[in-house]
Prior knowledge:
Order of helices and strands: HHHHHHH
Distance between the termini: 137 Å
CATH topology of the domain at 22-163: Serine Threonine Protein Phosphatase 5, Tetratricopeptide repeat
Oligomer: single chain
Shape: rod-shaped
Mean pLDDT: 86
Low-confidence stretches: 1-8
Number of strands: 0
Number of helices: 7
CATH superfamily of the domain at 22-163: Tetratricopeptide repeat domain
CATH architecture of the domain at 22-163: Alpha Horseshoe
Amino acid sequence: MNRIFFLFFSFFPFIFLNAQTIEELAAVRKGNTTYQQAEKIRMEAIQLIEKGGEVNTRLANEKFKESAKLYQDAEIAYRKGTATTKNFSKANYNLANTLYRQEKYEDAANSYKYVAEQKENDKSLRAKAYHNYGNSLLKQEKYKESIDAYKNALKLYPNDKETKYNLEYARKKMIQQQQQQQEQQQNQDNKDDKEKQDQQQKQQKQNNKEEQKQDQQQQKQQQQQDKRQLDALQQNERQTQKKVSEEEMKKNGKSKQEKDW
């Protein structure tokens, strides 16, 4: 039975007072509440899918749509939470979570990376950011980059089992990807060689056809030349015979006259 792989996902719902404005803090709190509601509904949808059946599938799709709208609302709230304080790491981290859930993996990766690389952030937050940064890259099939992200997470938390699991999974996927690329390259090379051979054969056929055409033209020209020479010889022969006949006639005519005398 094939093992189902789950991406381990970290969420940071807490608020820390630094230099954030009251409006930003309120927006982030609203984003947290909305995000958690979306997560709850999303999980209910997944449970319905697991139960199976047409009715459950329909209900699950409705819940997925409802959670998608909530993720969008949470994204808007988190963006308001960083309107003035751009380096509000907690808000940026949670914003990345909403982007990830909306399958905006490239944008999510950028946000996670920003949080992970801020060395003034605590190790726990940075490790989670690197972990989820790896997940976002993994979703984009950027396996080499995701491996590097997971390694950075393990440098901060070496014994994190979830990150180790994802790291090994990314390595396997990278090997599969490399094998597929090699096979595709080999197939492409074979295709190119076949096309090259076909082109060479086609060109050879064309060359043979041209040579055959030239040979036919030369043969035709030679035949025409031979015919002209033959016609000329025949003409000369006729003229010669005519002259001989004329000479004989003259000779015969003269001899007859002498005999009459």
